[in-house]
């Protein structure tokens, strides 16, 4: 098997046909180039170059070796350059998933800010159902996603929290809670709490549907649904209640659902997520642009 330095020395000398110029291009001494070529020739068993006091030429065997190695070596170089561009470059295509209109609106602003700094990188926004976010990331269908936190999952990295909003309880319009100005986390022990799909990380499912209140009271868990609209439909049908972010009042207003603020619950958080081993320069730059956008003008619920 040829070593990289041997291939470079052979192909460069095949182009230059001069040991001195080859040494200059490779930042080596002429003696080192000569030693490398001599070593190759001993392994092949015949000269690869015909040398005289005035000129250096490829031998017949050397010419054949060059013609067969050169295309493969060029492909290796091109492949490596593409890998560097994918990992460190700021051009090409960046695919970003979101799973709701409020998230989409935030991403539009982030995309505009990112594109103003990196106009050679195209951003493609794609709407996904919440259970599709992780499969899309793992399969490479998208590069990153704006989603609910906490998203603690092996192989998934999350960026800084971009949005914090008041947590509210979606309740049926005819429920006694609908006539209240606030509810408490302890009130969850008095109702059935709907769940997110089992395909989502436990960290996120437990955040929206805990099994016990802070005082240790048991919470009754109800059915799960695949989409946010399905959950709200179950709420409106009286199947249970569900914790949401305050943006739901604006983007998901319904006559059969009322949103009541919690008086003592932690806020709902959103942020970007991507594969742990896929943090390219494009992803880091987009995450920074998104953070700058929300810090400059945080969206109101």
Automatic annotation (TrEMBL):
InterPro entries per record: LysR_HTH_N, LysR_subst-bd, WH-like_DNA-bd_sf, WH_DNA-bd_sf
Keyword check for Oxidoreductase: no
Gene3D superfamilies, per database record: Periplasmic binding protein-like II, Winged helix-like DNA-binding domain superfamily/Winged helix DNA-binding domain
Protein's UniProt keywords contain Transcription: yes
Pfam family, one: LysR_substrate
Start and end residues of each HTH lysR-type domain: 1-59
Sorted UniProt keywords: DNA-binding, Transcription, Transcription regulation
Signal peptide (UniProt feature, chain positions): none
Family: Belongs to the LysR transcriptional regulatory family.
Protein name: LysR family transcriptional regulator
Lineage: Bacteria, Bacillati, Actinomycetota, Actinomycetes, Kitasatosporales
């Amino acid at each position: 098997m040829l070593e990289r330095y041997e291939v470079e020395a052979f192909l460069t000398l095949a182009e230059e046909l001069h040991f001195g110029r080859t040494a200059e291009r490779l930042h080596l001494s002429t003696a080192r180039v000569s030693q490398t070529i001599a070593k190759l020739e001993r392994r092949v068993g015949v000269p690869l170059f015909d040398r005289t006091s005035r000129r250096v030429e490829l031998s017949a065997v050397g010419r054949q070796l060059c013609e067969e190695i050169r295309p493969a070596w060029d492909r290796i170089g091109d492949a490596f350059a593409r890998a560097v561009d994918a990992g460190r470059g700021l051009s090409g295509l960046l695919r970003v998933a979101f799973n709701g209109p409020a998230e989409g609106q935030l991403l539009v602003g982030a995309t505009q800010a990112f594109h103003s700094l990196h106009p050679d990188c195209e951003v493609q926004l794609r709407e996904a159902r919440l259970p599709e976010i992780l499969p899309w990331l793992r399969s490479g269908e998208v590069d990153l996603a704006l989603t609910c936190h906490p998203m603690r999952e092996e192989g998934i990295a999350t960026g800084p929290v971009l949005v914090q909003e008041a947590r509210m309880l979606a309740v049926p319009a005819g429920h006694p809670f609908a006539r209240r100005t606030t509810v408490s986390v302890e009130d969850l022990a008095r109702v059935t709490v709907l769940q997110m799909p089992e395909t989502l990380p436990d960290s996120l499912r437990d955040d929206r549907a805990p099994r016990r209140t802070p005082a240790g009271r048991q919470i009754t868990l109800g059915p799960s649904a695949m989409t946010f609209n399905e959950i709200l439909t179950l709420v409106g049908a009286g199947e249970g209640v569900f914790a949401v972010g305050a943006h739901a009042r604006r983007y998901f207003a319904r006559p059969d659902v009322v949103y009541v603020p919690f008086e003592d619950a932690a806020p709902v958080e959103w942020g970007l997520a991507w594969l742990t081993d896929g943090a390219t320069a494009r992803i880091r730059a987009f995450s920074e642009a998104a953070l700058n956008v929300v810090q400059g003008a945080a969206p109101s619920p």
